[in-house]
Amino acid sequence: MKYNYNWTLKDANFTKDKGKVFSCFSCGGGSTMGYKLSGFDVIGCNEIDPKMMEAYIANHNPKHSFLEPIQTFKNRDDLPQELYELDILDGSPPCSSFSMAGNREKDWGKEKKFREGQANQVLDDLFFDFIDLAKKLQPKIVVAENVKGLLMGEAKAYVRKIYEEFNSAGYYVQHWLLNASKMGVPQRRERVFFIAMRKDIAQPFLHQVDMFTKAPLLTLNFNEKEIPFKEIDEIEVVEDQYSICPSYMKCLQLCKEGNNFSSVHHKGMLHNASRVDRNKAVNTIVAHNDGTLYHYKHNRRLSKKEFCQAGTYPIDYDFLKLRPNYLIGMSVPPIMIARIADEIYNQWIKLL
Q1: d(CA 341, CA 3)
Q2: How many C-beta atoms lie closer than 10 Å to residue 201's C-beta?
């Protein structure tokens, strides 16, 4: 295993010799840490949530940080020159409109307040704001992460538009559906990654995808053995650091290992809350508290260390006043990004 899910920021060796990265929708820096682990130099971030930005700065001390909506950030005329010289522009546009756990089509096109303290936004437009920024900065590579639900049902039309907009911005783009549990992450988290290469540098890498399409060849095959919860179980912890409301505690006491709360809830609700199975990787960590994960034996949520390891966050990460499951649930697992960044560097960047 190249990357260890049990790691610390203070002991990490970030070589910064693979190229420059800028992160949008940076949250607490999940993708940032992935690029750093892979050897890239992450020179800055853009984020709308002041609490997330505070955590990002506390843990990463970025050279450039922009606390503002991407709609205003993309229109700045005072950006540092090195943002126009990027190897990778990274971003995870907020994706709740397309999540299978949300309202999906009912919310498309509506303004929503993503988190407290933020302006109302049409969330499904943010991906295109991100592509606008790529068109302006013209990085060599663009990496955008999103939910699996983007590939399902009527959302497929949205994917076609993403392809069209990348094409207009001067990029070849492809997408991959990847599972973190096959990439050295103790969490079953499926995400779609759109990876684009600027057309003017793509010629040496082009191959025939199908009868009508050429695109840069990039192979992303990951098949690591799943890491079960028992490998990260902090056995000695028996009490929850946060109180559990009575209705959740009732379900927790009735719920069996590996099942979700809907199996015991009188209305079949709370399907995102579950007891983990000690012999499997944990389910996807989600940000909202009604979808959190509970220990298979003790009546408690997973501990901070267990959440960190399941999300491959460093165990010495300073969450400030944010709950670990909230911040990690909003993030791409660092090791997931590190594995992708390795392949982008080895198959593309170092050959340019």
Answers
A1: 13
A2: 14
| Distant-in-sequence, close-in-space partners of 259: CB < 8 Å, separation ≥ 6 | 274, 275
Q: Which amino acid is at 346?
A: N
- Tell me the mean pLDDT in the region 217-246: 93
Highest mean pLDDT among 102-111, 201-210, 240-249: 201-210
- Encode pLDDT of 137-158 as tens digits: 999 999 999 988 888 877 788 8
Q: Is 76 left (phi over 0), alpha (psi -120 to 50) or beta?
A: beta
Check pLDDT > 60 for residue 119.
no
Matching residue, tokens 């028992």: 230
Alpha-carbon gap, residue 252 to 85, rounded angstroms? 51
- The CATH homologous superfamily to which domain 20-225+332-351 belongs is Vaccinia Virus protein VP39 (3.40.50.150)
Among 108, 1, 12, CA closest to 314 = 12
What whole-number percentage of the chain has pLDDT above 70?
91
For residue 89, which of 5, 20, 154, 16 has the smallest C-alpha distance? 20
> DSSP characters for 232-286?
T--TT--S-SS---HHHHHHHHHPPTT-BGGGTSTTS--TT-EEPPTTSPBPPP-
Terminal CA-CA length for the chain:
28
Q: Are 314 and 338 in contact (CB under 8 A)?
A: no
CB neighbour class for 108 (10 Å; exposed up to 12, middle 13-18, buried from 19)? middle
Instruction: State the catalytic residues.
Output: 95
Task: List pLDDT tens digits, range 298-340.
Answer: 999 999 999 999 999 999 999 999 999 999 999 999 999 999 9
Dihedral sign, Cα of residue 94, residue 99, residue 101, residue 105 = positive
